[in-house]
Design a protein that fits this description.
The protein is elongated. Helix 2 crosses helix 3. By secondary structure, it is mainly α. The longest helix is centred in the first third of the chain and has 11 residues. Helices cover 63% and strands 0% of the residues. It has one domain: Orthogonal Bundle (434 Repressor (Amino-terminal Domain)), CATH 1.10.260.
Length: 75
């Protein structure tokens, strides 16, 4: 499974966009794209979602209990 920074970087490169071009299209600052791609941990969920929307995805809080139960069902 890809981490957030791997996912964003790979998808951006598939679009043949520089970080600057991608930031402009996503409507975020270049710093946001760089921080995501560097795997920084102190990120705004709203800004991350602005970037992920470019790929048809979003992040949202997940209830750990429900998540663990769903994983148990898969295994």
């Amino acid at each position: 499974m890809n981490t957030l920074h791997q996912f964003v970087k790979e998808r951006r490169k598939k679009l043949n966009l520089t970080q600057v071009e991608f930031a402009e299209r996503a409507g975020v600052g270049l710093t946001v794209v760089r921080k995501i791609e560097q795997g920084k941990e102190n990120l705004s969920l709203a800004k991350v979602n602005q970037v992920l929307i470019m790929f048809g995805h979003i992040l949202q809080p997940v209830n750990i209990k429900e998540y663990e139960e769903s994983i148990g069902e898969i295994q």
